[in-house]
Amino acid sequence: MDKRWSSVLLDTLVMTAGFGTLTMMAVAKPDVIAHFGIGSAEYEWQHIAYVFGLFIAFLLGHTRIYEGSFKKSVAIALSWAAIAQALIPLAPNWYTVVFLRFIQGFVVTLVPLFSTQIAHFFVAERPFAKGIILSGIFWGGVFGSISAKYAVGAFGWKGGFWVTVLIMYAVLALWWLFTEDFEIIHKTEGGERTNVWKMPFTWVLGLTFFPALWVIFTIVGFSSSLGYDMGWTKEHVATLSTSLNVSKALWSIGMGYVGYLLSRKNPSARGLFRAIVQVMIFSYAVAFVGLLIYGKAMLVGNYSLALASVVLIGALQGTGPAFWTSAPATYPKSIFPKASFALGLISNSANVIAPGLTDALARQSTGLALGELAVMPLLGILTLVVVSRMGLPVEELGDEA
Questions:
Q1: Rounded CA gap, 22 and 17, in Å?
Q2: H-type helices in 21-125, by residue range?
Q3: Directed axis angle between helix 303-313 and helix 234-263, to 10°?
Q4: Which of 71, 150, 209, 320 has the fewest beta carbons closer than 10 A?
Q5: Which residue ranges traverse the bilayer (predicted)?
């Protein structure tokens, strides 16, 4: 196999291990609550902290932490999750666990790091490669939750946490052995012309992925709450969540491949960007239909219809491969690594506000909350239309700027 594609598969394995093992907290919930003597409301603090960590993580890309060796940077990114995972069972109190969960959110920096890698390997194939890598997040959710049950049963909740640490570092060792290193260089932004934060294009492009993440980080917990309120069993809720994860993984790969087919027709910067916009608009359109069906299903309590709707809702993740290949396609080589982190920070701001706002709307009216989720793909399409008419930084500054 081509070394580039074997690296993509190894990257996917790292993503699966890094995100899959973090499901241990949910699986071990009863044991964790009993050990720390907390209630269900306090237990949710750790999830809020983790999601906030996913947002703050992208600020690290503007420091020197991820400069230099690519392999070292990936090891650091995975270690945010692994070291915190090892310390959680040893935490003296619940507040320490909440802080450690915040740190674990930094593992999401694997995403822009792998974007930098595939930008070195590919041009037209970038969306497909990125789609495969991003699918690892959702394969991790599926297989992680299943394996975590066996780990807790065999080793206890503390042992289960430590086993997942070993898994993460075993996968990292395998990845390290077969992955070629390169230098990540961030150009010092000494002037206005090369500061990605001062480019309107950065803000609008970052907001194109914001609606997708709004729904992705809200719908699982929201579905669980509504499902239990309607009398669905734990198995029903788990099946719905698993089906959504599988759907997102498959859409990630499928739309990544479509992005590749469109990109190879015109591998210029404008051609690549046009393919990115087309893939994201199509994915949003499919997801919009799915969310309409989902809304109807949840209002009437139709589980079969809700389960069918997630096949289409998963198309939201079809926007991911395109979005995460937009920086190397549209920014000069010297600044696109920083641009990736900037775009991640802007888009992931949805993580911080979406679940809480949706929950607040649901307390007023379930229909209102469902309507809010359904309108998000339309906002995504509107933002994509706007950004498609803007000039690209690489066109204005040149590829070597």
A1: 9
A2: 24-27, 29-36, 40-56, 70-87, 94-104, 110-121
A3: 30
A4: 150
A5: 7-28, 48-66, 73-92, 98-116, 128-148, 160-178, 199-222, 275-294, 300-323, 335-354, 366-387
* Spatial distance between the Cα atoms of 125 and 118, rounded to a whole number of angstroms: 9
- Angstrom distance (rounded) from CA 204 to CA 177: 39
Domains of the chain: 1-182 (1.20.1250.20), 195-390 (1.20.1250.20)
Tally the residues of the chain.
Answer: 401
Angle of helix 3-20 relative to helix 126-178, nearest 10 degrees, comes to: 80
Closest by CA position to 84, among listed 97, 72, 67? 97
Give residue 229's identity as a one-letter amino acid code.
D
- Per-residue pLDDT of 87-133, as tens digits, reads 999 999 999 999 999 999 999 999 999 998 998 889 999 999 999 99
DSSP 208: H
Q: Is 200 exposed, middle or buried (0-12, 13-18, 19+ CB in 10 A)?
A: exposed
